[in-house]
Design brief:
The complex is a heterodimer of chains A (117) and B (114). With 117 residues, chain A is mostly beta strands. Chain A contains no helices and eleven strands. In chain B, a hairpin with a 5-residue loop joins strand 5 and strand 6. Classes of the chains: A mainly beta (117), B mainly beta (114).
Chain lengths: 117, 114
Amino acid sequence: GAVVSQHPSRVICKSGTSVKIECRSLDFQATTMFWYRQFPKKSLMLMATSNEGSKATYEQGVEKDKFLINHASLTLSTLTVTSAHPEDSSFYICSATPLQGGLYEQYFGPGTRLTVT
Amino acid sequence: AQSVTQLGSHVSVSEGALVLLRCNYSSSVPPYLFWYVQYPNQGLQLLLKYTSAATLVKGINGFEAEFKKSETSFHLTKPSAHMSDAAEYFCAVSGPGANSKLTFGKGITLSVRP
């Protein structure tokens, strides 16, 4: 149980285009989903916290107009990188916290490798 | 405010040797502590967690960690390393709320020599 999927697993796009990454909780409902960015050989940097039906909360320094987050249902959150540039190339990982409380842990997706050319 | 310190970036052990990965935390509230493992180009897998119950926590793959409040530590150990343990290990801290944010350490790369 507690499986989180991401799609696509790998994407290459041209500079100036937008790309959408999906994060789904497959066997549980998630009150909250988190989006992280990981640079090579670096730790995870929290980008934003997403709650179903409300606006995402972005961390300081993260451009909300560039990284659009939508959490339309209890099992799906999307991250759209708008007008992507090579510096947006990174490994993006989502996580989800179950609706049923008490677990106090996040379940992580397998990540999406974004390369902007 | 919360933070995690993982000293060093790389630990190398021989197969069969003890694995010790250090983690110290700082938290203004009672912490929840986690160890995650990441294999190349994959997401994070939870090894174990401390959530204010037993201070000695056993996890998957033979790993365990002990919460020591006096030392603000949560070191990860495994008695005998296996080649398959080679990966990146992250210690993380969160507050007690179910939807609290995780703050990660910078990670430690574990290498296992044959």
